[in-house]
Design brief:
The chain has 276 residues and is of the alpha+beta class. Helix content is 26%, strand content 23%. β3 and β4 form a beta hairpin.
Length: 276
Amino acid sequence: MNLFKNAPLQGGRYVVGSVTGQGGPGAICLAMTQGTPPPPPPPMSGRPVPPRPVPPVGKPKKEKRPLSPEEKRRRARRLRRWLFIAIGVCLLIAAAVGTLVYLDWQRENTMRAEKESHVAQPVDLGLSVKWASWDLGASAPEACGLEYKWGKGADPDLLGAFPDEAHEKWGNWRMPTYDEWKELIENCRWRPDMLHGIHGVRAYGPNGNSIFFPFQAYESGGFSLEYWTANLCNDPSEAWKILQYKDNALDEDITPFLIEGHRDWEECRIRPVCAE
């Protein structure tokens, strides 16, 4: 500070520089300009501006305090109560669904039993056995009977393994054998007929008596007859059945024929026979 205190004034300003003379070479002197001071230097370009701190969003999280034993017991009781309510609701829904399924099953069984309880009349066609006047599961000659898979409709005397559906439902009746169907086909006259507005085929026996077989009509068109026999084919997965299919129900060539049928997935009607 003493160095600049007595610096000479030159032209109204103090001069800062190196002088040779008093003070020796390299002495420093200070010059101050009289009047308005110089403006401050502009800020340096490219200098990075530090980011402003961002305040936290939302409320500050409170530190969770541990639950007391009483609060834990209260929470456990509440969870148990909601669990019991959920289990009760599920049980009620299951009971309602089970009841509906049972009622539907009972209604179907009742309808099936009512259909199968109508035992037909035996008709003597002058052949080795008497034929039923309508199908198993029907209640009139013009009605199509129920359709069965072959497994339940076999003659136990022939196979020794399957119960006879016709015998179970109608007592002294049974399924006709391959030979009995062949006898019916070859010894009867088959003619197209209509009974109470239903198309079908009428088989006239050697003695003049007859039975009516109603056609199964398809929505896509066409009419068919399909009945099981009580005999398996050489392939144990197949059983013999009689078949007739016609586009025109009034076609004169209406005699059915015997053919193999897959017993595991095909369903056909049954026309029982009896010996009496």
